[in-house]
User: Fold this.
Amino acid sequence: MLGTKALSSLKDFLPKIHQPLPLNRRESQQLLKTLTTSFRKNLDKEHGYWSSKDTTSVASLKAASTTPTITPSVHDSHHHRPTDRHVRAILSNPLFSYDRATQLGPRVASERDPMDVFDEAVAKGLMTVRRAAGVLKAKRQAITQSSSVSVNETMATSGTALRVLQWLRSSGHERDLSFVNCTPLIVYLTNFMVEEGLEEISWVWLERLMNGEGPDFRDRKGPSPAAYILDALVRAKVPHGDSLDGGYACMVRARDMFHKSSSFETDAISAWRALSWWSTVSAWQRSQPSGALFDAFSSMGRRLQKFKKSIQVDRAHLELHHPTDPDARLAIGYLKSSSLQNLLEQERQEELDSGRICNLSRPYNTTIRRVGLMGMDAANHLARVGREEDAAWVRDVLFDKFGDTLVNAFRGKSYIARDFQHGLSTV
Assistant:
């Protein structure tokens, strides 16, 4: 009888241990898929197919960029068996990081952290690349609209990029680079990654794209994903009001890494022109840059001009804003060249065509405005160094050759505020 009572008590106790998991059908399928995928990846890794480069955790990549590499001892390796690593990889999956009980408090929907929504959607298998971009946009808006003293510091400590990267990795999007087709995700994620010290991962993606990895982009219209990544990196490295040295260094690094790539020049144009605009039109908003970095950046314009002729205007404008030795020779040369006359004739023809179809809202050629700004800077520089006759000649050219075209091009435009004029759209 004593045995029977003990068995009975155990029988009453066991159901309390074996409670069913609180998962619905979708969550169960997601869990099964995650476990199966993880197991297969682990087998691939152990048998040499899965690249260790692809399976490195985001945290280890971050640590590797700040600490020297340490080779584990034989003793340590015994404590990191494949099964241990496999279980650790499963448990670090974002699917398990969402605690439903802690997120069901009486919080108003408008006060909910966007990353809580992200974690819940990941746990339920509802997260997509485009939705992730929306979450990142909402998170950045929440930070900028908060009472935080420093937006950059708040972004740096938010852990936002790390969580999204873990999801990209566990979902397989990073392995095939399929996520790069979503340009808003690239822009918002790169911004958080730079602030959180995860910038090197963006360079890995950029290198893979330059080497031909990723989806087929042959039928894609507009800038390539590589162009978006480089553009986003440059923008993230030059916060408003700071020196442009970080952006210059970024462009120089890209040039050194990918100078042999046939697509580098076309991919670099947007980021280069954005920096060119900030270096000239809005230079007054920035601190003095390094002369060496400025020269290295400016010299790239000679190669890029072969792919976009209007870059000769950028180059001339940059020479006027050199940090130690400003020069007006290129600006004067352009104002005397046939390139300016061709540009004006093209603009006037477009103006006539738009008048015939009553298109009163036609956007004016941005190069026209840039030439006007360059001309005004050239006249001011020449007057400042005592070359009054040359300054008067430049002013006459602006008035005689441009006339109403220049006036119309600037009508209703606050050129100082158009810092992102040459940027890539995220729409």
Observations:
- Confidence is low (pLDDT under 50) at residues 48-58, 64-79, 356-363, 412-423.
- Residues 46 and 82 are 8 Å apart (CA to CA).
